[in-house]
Amino acid sequence: MIGRTDAALAADLAQGAGELLLAVRDELLASGEQDQRAIARAGDARAQAYLAERLSQERPRDAVLSEEARDDLARLEAPRVWIIDPLDGTKEFSQGRHDWAVHVALWEDGDLAAGAVALPGIGEVLRSDEPRAVPQRAAADTGLRFAVSRSHPSELITAVIEESGGTAVAMGSAGYKVCAVVRGEADAYVHAGGQFEWDSAAPVAVARAAGLFTSRLDGSPMQYNQRDVYLPDLIVCAPEHAPSVQGAVRAAQDRTALS
């Protein structure tokens, strides 16, 4: 479509890859495939091929950084870089769960310019050009609900929740957790266990567009299209909750350092 915006393209790509992933999973399960690792690998490969082809057709001059492709450092000199994760949450995807995602973001001239996160398991696409109104909490004096890993919440995050008097809401992939804050399933997402740029770029773009606070654990901004793509920690919450969440993080870091 001529004249389509970058944000609209990001949403279309994320939705298309998500629909393809659902079809691939159904096809493999119908064939009798039971190996979850094989299902995850097939999904990753097919979604990567789809996104790479579409971007080469529709934005041929732009660079691409993807979890599933070799990193071409020429991107460091490019004014526009698409940062994608074709399948965020391979375990959740291969197990037939709903809490996985597809990430498509655009970095332009130093910052995130557009992004979309598809949640194919629930049939939604969150996009930066159509920001959600984050649902208000029913009672401001109740503890915050933190999106945490279903399988391995870190010691630090457990301490953050305890320090804040909050509760844990278990769920799958990183993108789904950020979107859970946007959608009102959780009030905050704090991550400290190691991620890369593609794990957070599109979710952060969507969260920022919705008016949420995003930062590193130390309060510094999230920076993308870096030479080292390791971007291990993240806070996402409503701006009014940021001081209490950051305070809980500092207290938890002091506590775990002494333990």
What report would you give on this structure?
The longest helix is centred in the first third of the chain and has 25 residues, at 6-30. The chain starts with 5 loop residues before the first helix and ends with a helix. The protein is an alpha/beta fold. Strands 1-2-3-4-5 form a five-stranded mixed sheet. It has a five-stranded mixed sheet with strand order 7-6-8-10-9, with helices on both faces. α1 (6-30) packs antiparallel against α2 (36-58) and α4 crosses α7. The chain has seven helices and ten strands. It has helices at 6-30, 36-58, 90-94, 155-164, 174-183, 197-209, 242-258, and strands at 63-66, 80-88, 101-108, 111-119, 124-127, 145-149, 167-171, 188-191, 213-215, 234-237.
The shape, in one word, is: globular
Biggest β-sheet description: 5 strands, mixed
Oligomer: single chain
Give the distance, in angstroms, between the N- and C-terminal Cα atoms: 57 Å
What is the H/E string? Answer: HHEEHEEEEHEHEHEEH
The radius of gyration is 18 Å
Strands of the widest sheet, in order across it, are 1-2-3-4-5
| Average predicted local confidence, pLDDT | 94
Low-confidence segments, ≥5 residues, pLDDT <50?
none
Please state the structural category: alpha/beta
Record field, number of beta strands: 10
